[in-house]
Task: structure prediction
Amino acid sequence: MIVPGLLNRGDVVRVIAPASPFDPEMMAHGIVTLRDRMGFEPRHRHDIFTRRRYLAGDDARRLEEWREAVADPEARAIFCARGGYGAMRILPQIDPAPLLTCPKVLVGFSDVTVLHAVLNRAGLATVHGPVLTQLGRAPAPAVEHLHALLTRAPSPELEGPPAPGAGLSGQATVHPGRVEGPLLGGSLTLLAHLCGTSFLPPLAGAILAIEDVDERPYRLDRYLTQLRLAGALSGLAGVAIGQFTDCDGQGLRGVEVVRDWAAELGVPVAEGFPFGHEDANHALPLGVRATLVAPGPDEPGPPRLLFTGWADRTLPVSASPGRPPPSEGASPARPRD
Result:
């Protein structure tokens, strides 16, 4: 697995809209957070605000924008403006090879799950984290955590709450145990929609991190059943359950459906991790080795998801042409972001 290098203050980051259109004001708040609170230099195309029905422009525009961001010799990361829907439409034209040669960090979630999947499958680690329209309203701890994840390489400790950027704490153990494996996942809906395609990364031996928004409990059951019937969930090493926002109905909580399914697997499972469609969406690296600690009744501390493989990342795998590598250090129902 290729892990992109650390970012430094002043690094250029590209902002793209690979899926749905977005509120320009919310995007502006996200730009301010990237620039003023995180110290990066965001750039985007003038036509990023294009709208075509439920898409941020036609497929050709969004694909060209992706390729331009990937090829930008100055950019160290690619942030997505919003999820929503549409990234699946350009998957057949996404070539991971340039990012394997000159790695950049892809940051986003929700519909961006499909881009994570194709890049993780190809061997590139990515970051499941806030999109720009969410980043501007994110609380300080979530912003600090994302910044630390991108700019530092803290070593996660197996005991005690993880430091920002080193891992996440959950709320409860569903099935106790401790397991290590590649961390994969994202939106449960999108993972189910990738079933039967060549883009879903193999999940055997992986820790599956899942979240979702605005899905009724029976739909969550349907997505999990689809993945199970397709054999995609065979051999999971563990499950980290994130936020299932506005997923309740008919006297059921959506997370209960997910919890009951996960408990039947007999592998370590913990819930209540702060990633997903809430404002406090804490980032997690996908594709790298992680450790899931789900304490038993007699074990101290909360559940932990530790980014053990991400901590190995201290220098870039390769620098962009003509540029030296960066130095070390440095409510109501919600739409799909």
